[in-house]
Each structure stands twice: as C-alpha cells, then as structure tokens.
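Internal ticket #5521
Category: modeling
Description: The requester needs a full-assembly model to guide mutagenesis choices. All entity lines are attached below as received. Residue total reported by intake: 292.
Assigned to: D.W.
Attached entities:
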Amino acid sequence: MGADKKIPLKFRIYMMMYPLRIFMKSLVNNFKGDEKMGNFNLNGKKAIVFGVANDASIAWNIAKKLNDNGVRIALGYQERAEQMVKPLLRMLNNPIAEKCDVVDDSLLDEFFKKVEREFGKIDFLVHSIAFAKKEHLQGKFYDVNRRGYQVAQEVSSYSLVELSRRAVPIMSKDGSIITMTYYGSEKVAPNYNIMGIAKAALEACVRYLANDFGEKGIRVNAISAGPIKTLAASGISDFDKMLSHAKEKAPLKRNIDAEDVSNLALFLCSGMSKNITGQVIYVDAGYSIMAI
Ligand SMILES: NC(=O)c1ccc[n+]([C@@H]2O[C@H](COP(=O)([O-])OP(=O)(O)OC[C@H]3O[C@@H](n4cnc5c(N)ncnc54)[C@H](O)[C@@H]3O)[C@@H](O)[C@H]2O)c1
C-alpha cells in the first residue's frame, strides 16, 4: 500500500491502460492484411532479440517486423519489464520469451539452453540494449565514476560480445548480428556522456566481431538511429531538445521512428545485405552528414 503511493499517478494510469492499448494494437494489426507481410520472406528463420521493455522499444519493433516476415522470435527480457512484455507476446507467432539479464551468467546459460532446446539453430541475433545511471547522462562527462563507467560499458558494449559468443555456435551459416548505436559515439552530444563512450566501444566491437565471424559467413552490423522517444531515451537529460534539434538540422527535416529502424534491421537480416558486414549504418534522416 505504502509502496503503491510512491508510484506517480500518471504511471499507474499508464500501467492500467497498457494491456488495453496492446489489445487494440493487436486488433488493428490483424486487420492490416497485406501490410502485415513485408517484402522480405524469411520464413522458417529464427531470431534472438534482446531489449524489449515495452511497445515503444526499438527491439519490439524489430521483433514484430521479423515475426511478420516469417521469423520465429526468442525474446530475452529483464525481469522488471515482464508486465509490459507479456501482453506483447500474443502479437507474435509462437515465440519463446524468457527473463534474462546480460550481467547474469546463470540466466544467460538458462536462456541459451532453452533457445537451443526449442529452436536448434538460430539465424539472427538482435542486440538492442543499453544502460547508464541517470546521473551519468547529464552534466559534465568527467563526473562519471569508476562504477558508472563500468556499468555502462558492461551492459551497453560488452554484452554484444557476450551474446555473440553464445549465439554464434548455434547460428546458421549466413547468420546476421545487429546492434543499435547513436552518433554520440563520434561527436559530442551534450548529456549523452558515458553512453557516447560506450557506443564508441560498441561500434569497435562490431568491426572486430565482423572480422572474427566472417569466416563462418556470419555478419555483424550496427544501426545508428536518430533520436526516438523510448524508455531508455527518457533517461537522457533534455532528450526533447535532441529530438527537435535533429528535426531542424536533418536534410529531411523530420525525426525518424522505430519502424524506420526495423525496416533496416529486416534488410540486414535478409540475403539482400549478404556482403555488408562490420558497418555502422545510419537511419537519421541525414542528420549525420551535416557539418553545421
Ligand atoms: N531511442 C533512441 O533515441 C536511440 C537512438 C539510437 C540508439 N538507441 C539504442 O537502441 C537500443 C534500444 O533502446 P531503446 O531506445 O529501444 O530503449 P528501451 O528502453 O526500450 O530499450 C533498452 C533495453 O535495454 C534493456 N536492458 C538494459 N539493461 C539490461 C540488462 N542488464 N540486461 C538485459 N537487458 C537490459 C532494457 O530492459 C530495455 O529493454 C539501445 O542500445 C539504445 O542506446 C536508441
């Protein structure tokens, strides 16, 4: 009772309405017919997707897009996201979903055992995970402490290496690994701070992993997305300013959305991208080409 009172009313209403919102979405989805199937047929393929927190998550949009193109999905989600993830599962075709945290080896062992038992082989790994303490996503970068630096790197960068090492032995030839990054890895974005450093490391990991797994035919790429309003984004101070700045400066004069990212992810999973590996590919309405 006491704990309930501490949860802001706005959030409690959001949580109460969430299942209804997802139900309505699934109804709309069922009526969409043709649009539901994309142009890429990946029938019979299987993907592991990490990073679904709710229906706004980039990972969710990718999972749904792959699902609608014939891919069976195994979701690894954090315990705290369970209430938001469960209602989404009915929109997927025969998924596996299991609580998992990338800093917990025993949960990772369980997750990968389950995926191997149920799927045998997999074809794709989608890594859409990042975390830094809120206090390290504002103010001066140099105020980050040792633990904050380690946590951001471990969850946002090292986890790609850990998940790839576990996924590749059960991955089919021609597999594809995709991660999410942001331009703050290359240029200074105020408040992005430690996450920019973690993303720089992540992008370097992509290149080294692409080289390691190239001989197996497995590709590794990063999608560098423009700002999108999600749970993780809400942790970045002045995120709304990032959104409006991106819109104003981008050649296309608009923000992107998670659907744009999922379209690129679909391409990167398909044979259409068979000779693209080790790359950071931008979906940012052109923002990153501008000097001023
Ligand atoms: N939203 C943006 O503007 C934007 C732009 C470019 C890149 N990205 C990147 O996209 C990815 C997805 O973020 P999002 O914007 O969809 O936000 P999100 O909050 O929906 O997703 C972040 C996910 O990371 C997961 N996560 C955090 N710590 C974890 C851990 N220890 N173990 C397992 N999972 C963990 C969370 O549960 C959550 O599902 C992140 O890498 C983010 O940096 C986001």
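Resolution: model delivered.
Comment from assignee: The two ends are 53 Å apart (CA to CA).
Ticket closed.
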